């Protein structure tokens, strides 16, 4: 008999690029998703929970983020024994599944179909610091509404969502741009070659990083980037490149000035004029609903997603400063984006279906609230009933049941009760506000000891001996008064 | 140049065995998960959201349901270019990830660690009617508590969860059995051969289907099953098989009688006696917390999971009758199960870590509430503001904003407004309680028309002409009274 090889122990590790979320992190995210869902619902949007797994065929390859050209999906082939199975994949966003759902169920769905969806999505890409391969999205889209009134509604709803989760008015702005205006600019430039148009689109996408001078260089001969590498340019002349720069920098002092600048930039292009008209209409619609430009603004410098969307494009940016890893001040930046994409459903049905929507990056939004110190403070842990006599567990569990029935979060210590110090250490690790002690003496006297752990910690940290004596943090009360005393302590700390 | 082949359109279909959930289904499930999470939290359990993707190595193959021996996982290999990548898989339950999480993070977690988790899990198995490859679980487990007080707590919490989501007391029972008692029985039988023990375990698992006579035949020579096929037996004599039958049928009129029957069945086996002691302790602990046997009962006929768990086993069954597809009455059956499994973490660390928990099948529980007619009735749709004049969209959106600010779910019609009938059909499909109409005449007169669609439908369905005249379902009110009138109608129908 061959010597048996011992199976090595499996490594207890998440796969690379994945992580676990604990306690308050989970509760905070659930609360935020719930708050956003309420706003979406209030606007008449209905919930949709599509399957996390799609056929690769249905999913297609429509990743909206052009800065992640190599972003992939997690995919595998079905094992059907005799014949080759379908390729399946985890959804990489909530928009591609919406297109599939709408094409599959359109006869049963109202038109227009307003839907919201929230849940994890997966990207098979190189993980980086703070960049995970599973993250949450929270989307709302309107399918089948050609009017830009739908876009205006989305922008208003996005502003409401941000305020609902705790971003103060003035700390965010929803910026709106329009792909059609850019198309008009390209038309004016006489760029008919699709390759050149795509090259211009890719270049514009770098506007955030390199600014207008950088874009000018990249549209022309090229540019030496920060790493010292030379990036080849698109090869346009300065004159040819000028309309693009005019477009990107056309934001004026007010909406009217911005629109006038845009009209100048698109010259006689019909599609360009249509784009400017749409922006004008959106501005008028949100203004009529009371949203000023400090909340929703027309801003042609928003370029993220311009290559992907077909009409209006939205981006919500947080405008307050945070300190980055190096201690430098910078704006928090984008937490949500979206726009109009009229061709997604067409892949399935052959018919163009107008659609517009937004996706809120919930994890980034939570990070923003934490950076502002506005995230929920850690909720207190449960009241811990300690175990002084293992044989009396039934009594302790009955005490806990009594506390819970009184609406108080509570638990009995379930580790080895031998070392009482470990029980208090446990209560500390759990963030417990109160510990309850009932040993043989207390039981005989019909009392319980109630330790105020919050006060105890305060006293231990700072009190003088005098204060210590004057402010006891442990109370002996009749067993019948346990609930009342615990509630008194909890109320004092809340 | 070769003739270009047209790419065929992708099929708009979920993969086989997957489905989408719409509107009220999503909201109902979210509400149920939320209600259960509150109970778990109230018992001192903390939230955990582990990644949906695990390494196949970490996941292992520990599917608890012995009736699904071929259940598989969705797995794929990481593409790391030069070297073979890890195999990754979607989690098939929430327990295997918990073992990995605990082994990975145990230094940072309290001991005992009480955690709850909820979310989708995936099974790569043949889909069937009503059986999907993605479904929701909602688990609570205590890791690191050896005492059966932890098991008793789980049972009490499970009963509380069921009542919280709307299962009335008397309509469910949490049944408790113990794997150690069965081990004692096997010891008494003198079955030392692991193969034979496994065969007995597999046979016991069929008790639900074939009853005690069927089990007796299967433990002996074999049995002709319903399809006419002959199933080979384990080959035990009737005398040898008798302790198993005694165990399975040992439920008496009360807990004391059941325990006495079990003591007789395990004879002099030490492990068997330990198992019966544990059941006795659990019964005493839940009784002390006020849970009678109509809520939590000792029942040795619970066999599901006995092969997987190492100590106490729990199952929550709904005891009311429903009508099956054929119109026959049957009990709804199991909606939650769990037990003690002391070896899961050992795979990673080499040390045995006691753990116990439950998993609630949320989708089955929702189906049960629907079967009882207790599920949430469909919430009303939004108030729909119709569009009489496309050029006045800003006014209509402002009306909608006003309604929303008053706390009323509302939307403007965003389809093609040309055909007014389509707008009312849309409102009907949306389940809207109220439609608002403001054409040129109304605007000039400073009024709006408010249609009570619920009353309108009632009248249309049943009213005589007289009643029709007497009970108008459309009201003309001054524009300033719009909110008040809408609220009045909504209140009348709620």
Kindly describe this structure.
Chains A, B: One of its GO terms (cellular component) is cytoplasm. Chains A, B: It catalyses: tRNA(His) + L-histidine + ATP = L-histidyl-tRNA(His) + AMP + diphosphate + H(+). Chains A, B: Homodimer. Two copies of one chain form a homodimer. By secondary structure, chain A is of the alpha+beta class. The first copy, chain A, is built from 18 helices and 19 strands. In chain A, the strands form four sheets. Chain A has an eight-stranded mixed beta sheet with strand order 2-6-7-14-13-12-8-11. A five-stranded mixed beta sheet of chain A has the order 16-15-17-18-19. In chain A, strands 3-5-4 form a three-stranded antiparallel beta sheet. In chain A, helix 1 runs antiparallel to helix 4, helix 5 packs antiparallel against helix 10 and helix 8 runs antiparallel to helix 9. The longest helix of chain A has 19 residues. Chain A starts with 20 loop residues before the first strand and ends with a helix. The interface between A and B is large, with 100 and 100 residues.
């Amino acid at each position: 008999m061959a010597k048996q090889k011992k199976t090595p122990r499996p490594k207890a590790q998440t796969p690379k690029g994945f992580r676990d979320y604990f306690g308050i992190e989970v509760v905070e995210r659930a609360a935020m998703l719930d708050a956003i869902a309420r706003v979406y619902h209030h606007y008449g949007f209905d919930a949709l929970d599509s399957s996390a797994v799609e056929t690769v065929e249905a999913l297609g390859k429509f990743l909206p983020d052009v800065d992640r050209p190599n972003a992939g999906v997690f995919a595998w082939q079905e094992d059907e024994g005799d014949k080759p199975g379908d390729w399946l994949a985890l959804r990489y966003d909530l928009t591609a599944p919406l297109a599939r759902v709408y094409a599959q169920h359109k006869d049963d769905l109202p038109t227009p179909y307003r839907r919201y969806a929230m849940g994890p999505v997966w990207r098979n890409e190189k993980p980086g610091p703070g960049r995970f391969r599973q993250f949450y999205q929270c989307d709302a889209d309107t399918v089948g509404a050609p009017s830009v009134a739908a876009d205006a509604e989305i922008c208003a709803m996005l502003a409401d969502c941000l305020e609902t989760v705790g971003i103060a008015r003035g700390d965010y702005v929803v910026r709106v741009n329009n792909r059609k205006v850019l198309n008009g600019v390209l038309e004016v430039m006489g760029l008919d070659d699709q390759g050149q148009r795509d090259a211009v689109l890719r270049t514009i996408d770098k506007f955030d990083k390199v600014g207008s001078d950088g874009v000018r260089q990249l549209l022309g001969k090229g540019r030496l980037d920060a790493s010292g590498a030379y990036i080849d340019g698109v090869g346009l002349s300065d004159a040819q490149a000028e309309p693009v720069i005019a477009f990107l920098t056309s934001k004026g002092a007010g909406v009217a000035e911005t629109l006038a600048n845009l009209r100048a930039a698109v010259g006689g292009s019909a599609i360009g004029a249509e784009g400017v008209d749409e922006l004008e209409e959106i501005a008028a619609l949100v203004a009529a609903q009371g949203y000023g430009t400090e909340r929703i603004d027309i801003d042609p410098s928003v370029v993220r997603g311009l290559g992907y969307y077909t009409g209006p494009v939205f981006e919500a940016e947080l405008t307050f400063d945070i300190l980055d890893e190096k201690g430098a001040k910078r704006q928090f930046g984008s937490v949500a984006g979206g726009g109009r994409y009229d061709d997604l459903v067409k892949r399935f049905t052959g018919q163009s279906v107008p659609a517009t929507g937004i996706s809120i990056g919930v994890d980034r939004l939570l990070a923003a609230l934490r950076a502002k110190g506005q995230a929920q403070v850690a909720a207190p842990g449960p009241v811990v009933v300690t175990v002084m006599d293992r044989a009396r567990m039934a009594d302790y569990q009955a005490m806990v049941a009594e506390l819970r029935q009184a609406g108080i979060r509570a638990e009995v210590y379930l580790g080895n009760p031998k070392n009482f110090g470990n029980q208090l250490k446990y209560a500390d690790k759990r963030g417990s506000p109160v510990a309850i002690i009932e040993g043989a003496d207390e039981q005989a006297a019909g009392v319980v000891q109630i330790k105020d752990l919050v006060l105890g910690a305060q006293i231990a940290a700072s009190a003088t001996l005098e204060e210590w004596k004057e402010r006891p943090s442990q109370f002996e009360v009749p067993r019948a008064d346990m609930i009342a005393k615990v509630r008194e302590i909890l109320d004092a700390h809340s």
